[in-house]
Every structure is written in structure tokens, then in C-alpha cells.
Design goal:
It contains seven helices and 16 strands. With 250 residues, the protein is of the alpha/beta class. The chain is globular and about 50 Å long.
């Protein structure tokens, strides 16, 4: 059971969050707050696993509030402004919900947090000497990863992108499923073929074959889904584009 709080200065949005949380059996709503300052005080004496927080709030916005937390729980941002998405990614948020969102959107985001929580619980149960899982390419087509106490062989060409979640990596596949495994993103970066995969952010590696478009610090892997490109990787990505594609935009 994940203990969570909901923070939003809009009463209607706060009621909606409370209603959605009540529908999921693995979530327990500890409290609701109408501003981030009250939430700071609450967290001073209350431990929680997950925070649903609006970004655009008076006095202290959601991004600065999360930055201020020393012992940071998992975070899912909610906002009506898509331009804040990049800031959410920079803070390693579990997900980012763009208002207005429905229960299906909420449920998917909450499921990601629940999956990560269970993985953390499993890791804590492992012996201290247990080695970190490594990604090992078996040949040019497949990569082997340890997940859920078994080794899965994943076809490299089926990996759309990889997302870092702390000490875990979530592999997003072409069939819409995900595999989450315990090792660092840099290990996967070394294991995957550099001609097809590129690190574009400290939290993301993308399969270059699935990039559909790019604009203003982001790459689109579908009409609606995109990944951020951080400042540290913009030059490398632009060099790849310039050397690989002929520019017909001028």
C-alpha cells in the first residue's frame, strides 16, 4: 500500500484526485493540501511514498516544492501547462499528467509508481552481497536483462526507449509493454549498439530508428509522446541529425 498526498490549489481538481486515489486498492490517501507550504509542514511529521502535486500554484509552485524536499518521495506532477513537462522530467518524476486527465491516464501513472515501489521493496529484501544486475548482449539481435527473478531475452530492435528510475531502468517496447530491471542507465548505454541508440538526457536513451520528429529540446516517438533532450546532449544529437539527414526545411 502506497501512502500518498494530493496537493492542488483548485478544490475541484483536489476532489478529483481524491476520488481517483480511492478507486485504486494499492493507494492510501493520507492527506490533501491546497498549497505547497501546508504540504511542507505535513511532510515534516508524516512519511509518504507518493505525492500528486500541481505545478502552477501561488506562493510556492510544485517544482520548487519538490526541489526543496530532502527525503523525496515518488512524485507525479499534475498541471494544465505542457511547457512544465521538461522541468518535471529533470526532477525524475514518475510521471506527468496534463490536465484535464481521465481515470485511465491517472491509473497508468499510478501503476508506474506502484511498480517502482514493488521493485524497491524487492531490492530491500535481497541479501546485501547481491550483485547489481547487468545487461549482457548475447548476440546482435537480443539483450538479456534480469527482471522479476528471471532473465528475459529482449529483441534490441523492439526497444523504443529506456527510462531511468533511480537505480532501475524501464524498457519501453514496441508492443506497448515495459520491462523494469535493477541496474543503471549507463550500463545499458554501454551494452546497446551506439549506431541505433543515443543518450539524449540523463534519464533517457532513445532508439534512433523510432524518432518521428524533433523540436525545441524534445524528440517525438509518436504523434503525441515525446522525450526531452537535455542541454548536455543537444550538440551530440544535432550532429547526428546534420550528418545523417539532408535538411530541406530552408
Amino acid at each position: 500500500m502506497l501512502k500518498c498526498i494530493a496537493i492542488d490549489d483548485e478544490p475541484l481538481a483536489l476532489r478529483q484526485l481524491s476520488s481517483y486515489i480511492a478507486k485504486l486498492p494499492y493507494l492510501e490517501l493520507v492527506a490533501t493540501c491546497s498549497n505547497a507550504i501546508d504540504a511542507q509542514q505535513l511532510l515534516g511529521g508524516q512519511s509518504v511514498d507518493l505525492i500528486f502535486v500541481d505545478i502552477n500554484m501561488p506562493d510556492l509552485n510544485g517544482v520548487d516544492f519538490v526541489r526543496s524536499l530532502i527525503d523525496r518521495p515518488m512524485v507525479i506532477f499534475t498541471t494544465a501547462y505542457s511547457e512544465y513537462a521538461i522541468e518535471g522530467f529533470k526532477l525524475d518524476a514518475v510521471d506527468y499528467l496534463l490536465k484535464p486527465f481521465n481515470f485511465a491516464d491517472f491509473s497508468r501513472a499510478a501503476a508506474k509508481a506502484h511498480s517502482l515501489y514493488e521493485l524497491l521493496q524487492k531490492r530491500q529484501a535481497l541479501p546485501a552481497e547481491a550483485p547489481e544486475a547487468e545487461a549482457e548482449p548475447k548476440d546482435k539481435e537480443f539483450i538479456s536483462v534480469k527482471a522479476d527473478y528471471k532473465v528475459s531475452l529482449v529483441k534490441i530492435s523492439d526497444i523504443v526507449y529506456l527510462e531511468s528510475e533511480g537505480e532501475y531502468v524501464r524498457m519501453h517496447l514496441t508492443n506497448g509493454t515495459c520491462i523494469t530491471t535493477l541496474f543503471r542507465l549507463k550500463n545499458m548505454e554501454t551494452a546497446l549498439p551506439a549506431e541505433h541508440f543515443m543518450r539524449i538526457h540523463r534519464s533517457y536513451i532513445v532508439n534512433l530508428d523510432y524518432i518521428r520528429s524533433y523540436v525545441r529540446g524534445r524528440v517525438y516517438i509518436s504523434e503525441t509522446e515525446y522525450l526531452p533532450i537535455s542541454e548536455n546532449y543537444k550538440e551530440t544529437f544535432q550532429h547526428y541529425i546534420d550528418s545523417r539527414f539532408r535538411n530541406l526545411s530552408e
